[in-house]
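Quick question: what would this complex look like in 3D?
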Amino acid sequence: GAVVSQHPSWVICKSGTSVKIECRSLDFQATTMFWYRQFPKQSLMLMATSNEGSKATYEQGVEKDKFLINHASLTLSTLTVTSAHPEDSSFYICSGRGRRDVCYFGSGTRLTVV
Amino acid sequence: AQKITQTQPGMFVQEKEAVTLDCTYDTSDQSYGLFWYKQPSSGEMIFLIYQGSYDEQNATEGRYSLNFQKARKSANLVISASQLGDSAMYFCAMREGQRTGANNLFFGTGTRLTVIP
């Protein structure tokens, strides 16, 4: 299947700092990338939809100024968690829409804010 | 209303046996897509199988098959000849408006499958 590379796979940061998570589609062009958040033992919650060359669309309740999304090219989308707080600790995972309209996921980033 | 319902929080299956993971969905769209993903403890989401609403035959991918019953709005995943490596969380997902726009996936709550040696 198609490959989406996501890094870092895990990060620990201090409260108040910012963290950038990158997702790259390696063998397909993803005009759309989806960013999800997953709490322990729960399902994936869509945070935002990122479209190449335009502003991201955020789901209700997701702060766009806190979770900055940039989709600068057809193969790269980034999520920056600004001024991170302990409650932002979570598993973040991206997906790109590839062949046959299947969404392929990155390997996820486990963020811990201390 | 929940768009995707997975009623089995956990399932156990003996190695080499087959297992069915249930999934029902709710949509008023005529065109939609159904997906199954596997999430091992490492966290990655692995695509397993896809079924389009207009596909007449049930999708199959190796040991995975999707039992698609449109009238009942169910899309159960069947794993044949279970292996220890199949132990993971399994998510059913749906995208409405197949092949249109940038529609995201709606996920069920998942089923944790444990394969017993």
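Answer marked as accepted. Chain A has no helices and eleven strands.
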